[in-house]
From TrEMBL:
SUPFAM superfamilies: S-adenosyl-L-methionine-dependent methyltransferases. It comes from the Eukaryota. This is Methyltransferase domain-containing protein. Pfam families: Methyltransf_23.
Length: 278
């Protein structure tokens, strides 16, 4: 149980996570998730961070009950909805609550677990038949065409983050495997939708330009949050600081076409004895 990013209780990380949450809402047309969950559901938000998703889900679904769990619980500001609770839990090594959930949600957990597939299996075992799992995670690989990013600092930053992550068992490309892992775990109706996250306003398409403007802001924070991976990859603190500054300058440069994809993956636990092939 090692987590390499700052705790969600730190103000700059809290701001970044809330901003990222709003970016996901923008991408998903205002929806908190894509799975067709019924309105009276028992919901678990794993690695809840600031708890913003759990609180909003509870507010929007007053007949559901929502539990947010995390290694460390950040005290949410203001009054909590009565149908929302938080609990400290190491979701990989700890014992999950005995509840059988209808919907288990994970957002931005790519740097969290030693064995994500084993955590998917835990979710499967703690879910009612017909229940839904949903994961939102980026894949740290450039999906933009052309070679404008070749040899840039931001390209080097991404390569070193991936290298540093691998050294400690955090594959920052693993969201590309979620669909396969969910199928192998026994889930059915697996959907993997990918949405582009341009690094700034470089795309011509106005909608992508808008996402780029939002993601740029989040990315500037992410460059700081992922510092540990640069030193794990072998950079000195001085070189890491220098690379981060140069990468941030590139993130502002619309001549450099860079984009990650964020995977929005959801799947259903089969009903006992029934499999409706879609
Ligand atoms: C990048 S944040 C994402 C938080 C939130 N899901 C969001 O989208 O804003 C990752 C969170 O995972 C939590 N975390 C890391 N490892 C965990 C584990 N083994 N069990 C539970 N939570 C974990 C961290 O404490 C952190 O709050």
């Amino acid at each position: 149980m090692t987590y390499f990013l700052p705790e969600a209780s730190q103000q700059t990380e809290k701001d970044r996570l809330n901003y990222q949450h709003n970016m996901m809402l923008h991408i998903l047309g205002g929806r908190l998730g894509q799975a067709p969950v019924h309105p009276q559901a028992q919901v678990l938000d794993v690695a809840t961070g600031t708890g913003i998703w759990a609180i909003q889900y509870a507010e929007q679904h007053p007949d559901s009950t929502v539990l947010g769990v995390d290694l460390s619980i950040t005290k949410p500001q203001g009054l909590l909805p009565g149908n929302c609770q938080f609990q400290q839990l190491d979701a990989e090594n700890g014992e999950w609550p005995p509840t059988q959930f209808d919907y288990i949600h994970f957002a931005h957990v790519i740097a969290c677990f030693d064995d994500t597939k084993a955590v998917m299996k835990k979710a499967f075992d703690h879910m009612k038949p017909g229940g839904w799992i949903e994961l939102h995670d980026p894949e740290l690989r450039n999906i933009a065409d052309g070679d404008s990013a070749k040899g840039t600092a931001v390209e080097e930053w991404v390569q070193l983050v991936v290298k540093g992550g691998r050294i400690v068992g955090r594959d920052m490309l693993k969201s590309a495997h979620y669909e396969t892992w969910l199928n192998e775990t026994g889930f059915v109706n697996v959907q993997d939708a990918k949405f582009p996250l341009p690094f700034n306003e470089w795309p011509e398409n106005p909608k992508l330009k808008e996402v780029g403007a939002i993601y740029k802001h989040n990315l500037l924070g992410l460059v700081e949050s992922l510092t540990k991976f640069l030193t794990l990859a072998g950079l000195s603190h001085t070189d890491a600081k220098d690379l981060k500054e140069r990468a941030k300058r590139d993130i502002h440069n619309p001549q450099i076409r860079f984009a990650f994809a964020v995977h929005v993956v959801y799947a259903q636990k089969p009903f006992n004895g029934i499999y409706v092939h879609l």
